[in-house]
Write a structure and sequence with these properties.
The structure is a homodimer of 167-residue chains.
Chain A: H1 12-20, H2 23-33, H3 39-46, H4 50-62, E1 66-70, E2 78-82, H5 84-87, H6 90-103, E3 112-116, E4 128-129, E5 135-136, E6 141-145, H7 151-166
Antiparallel strand pairs in A: 1-2, 4-5
């Protein structure tokens, strides 16, 4: 199934979704963060069909999130390794995990805890913050056009801003 | 198309993806954060087919992210309002936006800047942090089983942990 591409939309959220916002792609990236490297491991951990997995891995290689390397243990085996572009998805995955922990918990509680390796203490809850460190909710921010905003985007953000200051 | 549900997987990322990890759902939520409330507005901003939009909005209402209210301006019109569960997706959307700004930029630059309403300064880059404030990368954390981990999850995390301390 050919999906509609969101790239023509100026929004960076839409562009990010185009690359990583597919359900299986996000789970493949979660696996990569958990240390999975080989095709067979991805397959057994995700119980995913071979063709879907091959398709998602190929797209991730094409988009520069994974690179294929030779295994150090076994020179004939290929491994999928995360690039910096992939590693920088860490906050996206932690944001999803923390939201899931809170709003879609497993019946018996959180399955995974994420600890700072150095101190053994749990990571903090991810918050959007101001430069002075104050945590910000969605209602505490305003959107303004950046250099890449189209005329439509600009008009739209003005409307959004006016509405939100009135409410 | 009936999609495979990821809920049986213990992982909170998988559970979050089940609810919000669909391309259109993420864009509908982005619109809601931008202040869109009415069906026609979602449709014109997203150029989305009526049936797809109706389906995603209904799922978001069913999952408790949006609630239908009467418009204050026009009592006959319905509006979709975000619940707390939805508002708490703010870090997920900002994480996606910042990743997109960095790795999938629009040709002429960032389309949107997000400012702290109080000071007018830009929000900071979302970082995963330790309780003492140190920023953490994926390689700085370890995963340990939480109360909801299955026996499989536990065995798996042990392996992941052993591999990552060796590398």
């Amino acid at each position: 199934m050919k999906k509609k591409s969101f790239s023509p939309m100026a929004c960076s959220i839409a562009r990010a979704i185009d690359i990583i916002g597919d359900r299986w792609t996000l789970l493949v990236m979660r696996e990569a963060f958990y240390g999975t490297r080989r095709f067979g491991q991805f397959q057994s951990h995700l119980t995913i069909a071979t063709n879907i997995l091959a398709n998602r891995l190929a797209a991730l290689v094409e988009n520069g999130l994974l690179e294929i390397t030779q295994s150090a243990d076994d020179g004939r085996a290929s491994e999928y390794r995360m690039t910096k572009k992939a590693k920088d998805m860490f906050p996206v995955l932690i944001a999803l995990m923390q939201w899931g922990d809170r709003y879609a918990p497993a019946p018996s509680g959180r399955p995974v805890k994420v600890l700072d390796r150095e101190t053994g203490r749990e990571i903090t809850r991810l918050r959007v913050t101001a430069p002075d460190g104050r945590p910000l909710e969605a209602s505490d921010v305003r959107l303004v056009p950046g250099p890449g905003a189209s005329a439509d985007d600009r008009a739209r953000m003005l409307v959004v801003d006016r509405a939100s200051t009135q409410s």
